[in-house]
């Protein structure tokens, strides 16, 4: 859509923003600027709503400390909910019963954007791939703005972006579930594994939420999917956009894949995208695998996805090469922290599900001291047992899932198993076990919310603890 169309949509409308935080505050400000009558409601007490004071000063009504019975009523035109708020809460149920649209902040971003949007989602690899695509477009002089689930609210950036820019957006299933007309010009689905089932309740709802990324695309748009994923291949049948694939296992008809020891990109032969790339060779050699700066075999999937998206967006093959030779990763994603007495420490705090942890574990040949644990979402972690047998010499656990993970370690025959109180204690315990040549890996396989505000906080504490070890020598 466009800023002017979005302003017309919300001018004079009564909007309830449920959930404050960063995205709630951002969308409240954006909509007030559009002329909407905005009320923000958060169940947290006023003392914990840091953004409330600033919003009050800007003339936005904020109600903290619970959800008043009449907060949702027939006079409300839109409810914009924080993505993490479940649909089962009373205000949302009431809004749905009244036929009031319940949307998320990214829907508002689309409605207010003059710039095209590239949307990236998946169970794992979103932040790395989003960042990588942003770098490729920047290197090509295409003026990207990276936002969304990666940290900067998309609505805030969309309202400011110019038509010649491109919004590169990391999108979660929570955000996509609350969309109606959201239409990215390029949409990328990296993978789909069992994740967030405590929120979505069923795998079907989780997959459906992810697939909303493509729901409104037309033949003028591009969809980039993982050919190695059975779910992605099944979804492709209903997608109207031009398709590009990526695969780490086989050659694809159009898209990016590995041939021998190098990455190649094969452009489509028909359609608008084929015309856009018509001056390029049918098959472009991108880079040899040994030239990649980004570590980890699992990151090859992210790289291939990035190549397909970036080429579809107009990035030059030369710019893509330069970025791939220098881009070494994102904080909290298999991030090298330090080497102490021949032991290497890695922070993979973003690994919030078993699949992400298994990818990290598979990235090392050296013996691993694995630090894991966190929020219990009802996962049994059985799929990790074969990998634990092959790669792990010791397991240190904490949090709600500690006993489950210790049981899997025992099943894998790992003798060295220890439960500790937190990540800081885990690093201290790992130091006692580690020998030269070992890897100490924080890859929790769980969300952080039982003990920490975010995976970032957890990762920072891990890194601080490791650096204290280094300074204490």
From TrEMBL:
Enzyme class: ligase
GO MF assignments: UDP-N-acetylmuramoylalanine-D-glutamate ligase activity
Function comment: Cell wall formation. Catalyzes the addition of glutamate to the nucleotide precursor UDP-N-acetylmuramoyl-L-alanine (UMA).
Pfam families in the record: Mur_ligase_C (PF02875), Mur_ligase_M (PF08245), MurD-like_N (PF21799)
Domain Mur ligase C-terminal: 332-446
Homology family: Belongs to the MurCDEF family.
UniProt keyword ATP-binding, yes or no: yes
Domain of life the protein comes from: Bacteria
Keyword Ligase among record annotations: yes
Protein location: Cytoplasm
Gene3D superfamilies, per database record: Mur ligase, C-terminal domain, Mur-like, catalytic domain, NAD(P)-binding Rossmann-like Domain
Catalytic activity, reaction form: UDP-N-acetyl-alpha-D-muramoyl-L-alanine + D-glutamate + ATP = UDP-N-acetyl-alpha-D-muramoyl-L-alanyl-D-glutamate + ADP + phosphate + H(+)
Annotated protein name in UniProt: UDP-N-acetylmuramoylalanine--D-glutamate ligase
Pathway: Cell wall biogenesis; peptidoglycan biosynthesis
InterPro entries linked: Mur-like_cat_sf, Mur_ligase_C, Mur_ligase_C_dom_sf, Mur_ligase_cen, MurD
UniProt: ATP binding residues: 122-128
Keywords for this protein: ATP-binding, Cell cycle, Cell division, Cell shape, Cell wall biogenesis/degradation, Cytoplasm, Ligase, Nucleotide-binding, Peptidoglycan synthesis
Enzyme Commission number: 6.3.2.9
Positions of the Mur ligase central domain: 120-309
């Amino acid at each position: 859509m466009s800023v002017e169309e979005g302003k017309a949509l919300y001018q004079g409308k009564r909007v309830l923003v449920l959930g404050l935080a960063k995205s709630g505050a951002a969308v409240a400000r954006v909509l007030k600027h559009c002329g909407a009558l905005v009320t923000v409601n958060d169940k947290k007490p006023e003392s914990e709503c840091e953004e409330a004071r600033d919003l009050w000063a800007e003339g936005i009504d904020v109600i903290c400390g619970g959800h008043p019975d009449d907060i949702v009523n027939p006079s409300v035109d839109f409810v914009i909910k924080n993505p993490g708020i479940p649909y089962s809460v009373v205000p949302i149920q009431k809004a749905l019963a009244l036929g009031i649209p319940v949307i998320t902040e990214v829907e508002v971003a689309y409605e207010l954007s003059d710039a095209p949007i590239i949307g990236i989602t998946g169970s794992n690899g979103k932040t790395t791939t989003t960042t990588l695509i942003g770098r490729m477009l920047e290197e090509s002089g295409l003026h990207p703005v990276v936002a969304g689930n990666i940290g900067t609210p998309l609505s805030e950036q969309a309202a400011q972006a110019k038509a010649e820019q491109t919004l590169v957006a990391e999108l979660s299933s929570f955000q996509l579930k609350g969309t109606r007309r959201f239409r990215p010009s390029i949409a990328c689905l990296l993978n789909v594994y069992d994740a967030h089932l405590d929120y979505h309740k069923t795998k079907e709802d989780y997959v459906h939420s992810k697939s909303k990324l493509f729901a409104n695309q037309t033949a003028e748009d591009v969809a980039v999917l993982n050919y190695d994923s059975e779910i992605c291949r099944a979804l492709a049948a209903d997608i109207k956009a031009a398709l590009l694939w990526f695969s780490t296992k086989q050659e694809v008809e159009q898209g990016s894949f590995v041939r021998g020891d190098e990455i190649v990109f094969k452009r489509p032969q028909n359609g608008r995208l084929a015309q856009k790339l018509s001056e390029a060779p049918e098959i472009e050699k991108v880079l040899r695998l040994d030239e990649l700066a980004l570590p980890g075999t699992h990151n090859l999937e992210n790289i291939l996805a990035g190549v397909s998206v970036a080429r579809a967006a107009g990035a030059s093959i030369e710019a893509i090469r330069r970025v791939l030779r220098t881009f070494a990763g994102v904080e909290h994603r298999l991030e090298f922290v330090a080497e102490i007495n021949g032991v290497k420490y890695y922070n993979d705090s973003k690994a919030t599900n078993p699949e992400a942890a298994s990818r990290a574990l598979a990235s090392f040949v050296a013996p691993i001291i694995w630090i894991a644990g966190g929020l219990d979402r009802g996962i049994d972690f059985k799929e990790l047992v074969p990998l634990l047998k092959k790669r792990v010499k010791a397991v240190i656990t904490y949090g709600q899932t500690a006993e489950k993970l210790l049981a899997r370690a025992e099943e894998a025959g790992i003798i060295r198993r220890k439960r500790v109180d937190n990540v800081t204690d885990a690093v201290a315990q790992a130091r006692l076990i580690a020998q030269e040549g070992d890897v100490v890996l924080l890859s929790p396989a769980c969300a952080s919310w039982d003990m920490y505000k975010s995976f970032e906080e957890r990762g920072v504490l891990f890194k601080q603890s490791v650096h204290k070890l280094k300074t204490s020598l």
